[in-house]
Amino acid sequence: MARASAVITKNNKVLLIHRKKEGEEYWVFPGGLIEKGETSEEAIKREVVEETGHKVTSCKFGFDYIDEKGNSHPVFYCEVENGSPRLGGPEAEKHSEEDWYHPEWIEIKKAVGLNVYPEAGKKLLKDMENIKNYPHTFTTKKGKKITIRLPEKEDVKGLTKFINKLVEEDVPILMNKKVTEKEEGDYLKGVINGIENKMRINLFAFDGDKLIANLGVDKKPLRQEHVGNLGIAVDKDYRGEGVGTELLKRIIFLAKDYLKLKIVILSVFLVNKDAIKLYERLGFVPYGELPKGISYKGEFVGESYMYLEL
Question: Both 164 and 279 in a single domain?
Fold first, then answer.
């Protein structure tokens, strides 16, 4: 029978079930067998409540893992309500010194070194830890020290200012309307959750406390889950200094290593010749155009679509 599992992360921690059975100590992701008449999503919501006491607030299918017998088991990325985990359901009734259950939040960095089942779960934890190799600092062509790191919820003011400056400059990006801190706060929350759930990856670049670039890759759903859509924006005062190149190389690596993508796609205004040259240097190939697809500076300009096989 198929077993549904839940990957639940929050604040760089992962929710696992600590087990001791027949002299062995190990950890598993919350989940269990899919009962007759249940969908896999219904099963995982039930199991998470039973094993951790947490109610699932959102649940997205992640991937299927294949066990040693060739059976397929669904894995979901879930979010849960706040609170302390507590054991319930059938597991609480079975809990004993010989068959021990304990739900607990564990730092991802620590969880990587634990005896975690299944093997696919251990690999997933290692992938999560790989993106923690930030912040990273590099020097631009003009000698500026730039820090690249993952987004944080405290970045909302800097992000709002950054986006609104781009809108004022009327740069060749789709965004042409100023945003509020509330809107960017909601966006940032979605970005951070998406990174934890391996549905996207974003990197921010800073000169001191000033946000000077944002780029990300969003994983597409369903039959296109091997494809990611890339977007990038760089402050005008830092263009031509190698910031875009450095960021793109890093996000392409993470798209392959962390999101497990096979293809990254993007769109670019045809009038943005410098960006097109940069993408081509990194291996992106054009696969189509939409003439007059963009309204920009009082006229309709073309949009080019490009892709990169990873």
Answer: yes
